[in-house]
Amino acid sequence: MANDKNTSKKNILKRSKVLLIVLSIVLVVANCFVLLETRALSRSFSEQQNQATWSLFQLSKEFSSLVTIAPVYAASDQYRIEAELAYELTWSRFDLLLHAKESESFMEIEGTRQFFSQLFDRYKKLESLAINIDTPVQAETFVQQLNSIYRELLDYLNQNFQIKNPFFQKQTERARALEHLQISLMLLLFSCFMLVGYILNLESKSNRQLAMTDALTNIPNRLAMAQVIQDHIDQQLPFTLCILDLNGFKQINDLFGHQAGDKALQILAKRFMNTDNRLQFSCYRIGGDEFALILRQKSSAKMEHALNCALDCFSEEFEVKPDTLYPLSASVGLASYPNQGKDFSSLISIADRNMYQMKFATRSRAKQT
Hints:
By secondary structure, the protein is of the alpha+beta class. Helix content is 70%, strand content 10%. It has helices at residues 2-47, 51-69, 77-99, 104-107, 112-131, 136-160, 166-211, 222-234, 249-256, 258-272, 275-278, 300-311, 344-368; strands spanning 239-247, 281-287, 290-295, 318-321, 324-326, 329-337. The strands form two sheets. It has a four-stranded antiparallel β-sheet with strand order 2-3-1-6. A two-stranded antiparallel sheet has the order 4-5. Strand 2 and strand 3 form a beta hairpin.
């Protein structure tokens, strides 16, 4: 069951990575498409108007290019350079429109110079925001303010200069479509960021679980035990460490093979992880035929009850092969925190020593018998 869960998690990670690659490719292709379409749109503007109107359309063209590249301004150094160039070109177009002789007739129209001066002032204020773009949120704020100025410019041109021929309307519709596409690209970009975070989080959890889980029995391993013990010590929570070394395990391997021994370890781990037992102690496989328990009960009576629950797991024989039962027992060594040891190394050493004393005593009695 646990292996199935691990396989499922790996499949999720694999599918997520594939999805991330697909989204990234789509994002790159879409950005290239927007750039090509915007450049084509900008060229068509400049080719259709006289010298004075040409200045207005050049401003629209540079602004359009800037609006296109702005959503990916912080994605790479190349995009940053292109965006800064587009920003400077748009700045220059504003300046020419306000001060060049070719635009004087337009600037004499009531309210025109005031409108473009105010629009230029708002545009210049975006420079400080553009320089400090480091996060997607800052990039979105910059794009929103830039789009607001750009829409006001297009609306003003339509309303005041009567550039409403069918060709211009078609270009305006294309510009709006590009704006919608830019919004979609921003959403896609955020989706990629979220997916990256999701994948990294899943991988981190999966790797952590694998690092702290025994591959054979699917219970926590020695590393997990060390962390739990250190957490208890840091919080000064009393506990008793119990190390169990199996008696008779070597005979199972010798008589029935290592697969039978592995099955016996798996059966014992399942008994330790029984719901009732998990309320009494936490269990770990720390290597070979050695297990460890952490008993958190404060009173000696409760601790003794928890230890008896653990030893009850050996009361039934182990079915190491079909229709083949074999008994197992354990030598036990205890070490209590903080009475007998105050750090991980000393607790392990004391519990090991007590466990081997019990094992040798058991062997001595067996020989005497």
